[in-house]
Amino acid sequence: MRARPQLVAALLITAGCLDREPTASSDGPGPVPEVIPSAAWIEVGDRIRLDVVPESPFSASLDDERVARLEQNEVIGLAPGAARAQLFFPRGRGEARINVRASLADRRAAILGEGLSDASLLGVWSADAATTFAVGTLGTILVTRDGGATWSRMDSGITADLVGIWGSSPTNVFAAGARGAMVHYDGNSWRKLPVLTTDALLEVCGLDSTHV
């Protein structure tokens, strides 16, 4: 006599061969809690609270106690660096990345390099790959002849702000700026040119050495 399919299925379930919830853990239902925040940035001396959702009992540890320390569910920054907080739950674990940076009071500005002048540079022109001129306020003119590796200051002979610069060669360069100021470089020195207007000259350009 054939067994009825319903009776066979009932016997298998009773015996444990079929699991009505095959993805459930034997430790009981429920997801692994989420750590909030999973990443945080704090300053030295500051603290941040670690929460878990949904609520669950846990134990915690830090992989670098030189950077931060744990007080119950709070992390306190001790020194600049990064530390990982690991939280262990009854059904798994989670972690949070804690980045600690120096406090604003401990930060100091540093001068990485000082220029030849504190004047603002307003125009630049390159004669070739090695030679470049730059002009700026208070008649400032700088030149490099080694592709920018080093710069030197040139005497323009004026104090007016210079804005535009152009040349047909490294030995034929013109610069212009405020109140109609114009100067010319012949390869040896800069010379002031006659003032033809009191308006500001904002740019210099030319077709060749004789048409500027």
Short description:
With 212 residues, the chain is mostly beta strands. Helix content is 5%, strand content 40%.
Would you give the CATH topology of the domain at 33-104? Immunoglobulin-like
Principal-axes shape call: rod-shaped
List low-confidence stretches: 7-27
Subunit organisation of the chains: single chain
How far the N terminus sits from the C terminus, by CA atoms, comes to: 114 Å
Percent range of helical residues: under 10%
The CATH architecture of the domain at 33-104 can be named as Sandwich
Which H/E pattern describes the elements?
Answer: HEEEEEEEEEEEEEEEEE
Strand proportion, as a percent range, falls in 35-45%
User: Helix/strand/pairing class, anyone?
Assistant: mainly beta
The strand order across the widest sheet is 2-9-8-5
CATH top-level class of the domain at 33-104: Mainly Beta
Main sheet summary? 4 strands, mixed
Secondary structure tally, helices: 1
The overall strand count is 17
Average residue pLDDT: 82
Report Rg: 37 Å
Structural account:
The protein is mainly β and 212 residues long. Among the domains are: 72 residues, Immunoglobulin-like (Sandwich), CATH 2.60.40.1080; 72 residues. 5% of the residues lie in helices and 40% in strands. It is built from 1 helix and 17 strands. Strands 2-9-8-5 form a 4-stranded mixed sheet, with no helix packed on it. Strand 16 and strand 17 form a beta hairpin. It is rod-shaped, with a radius of gyration of 37 Å.
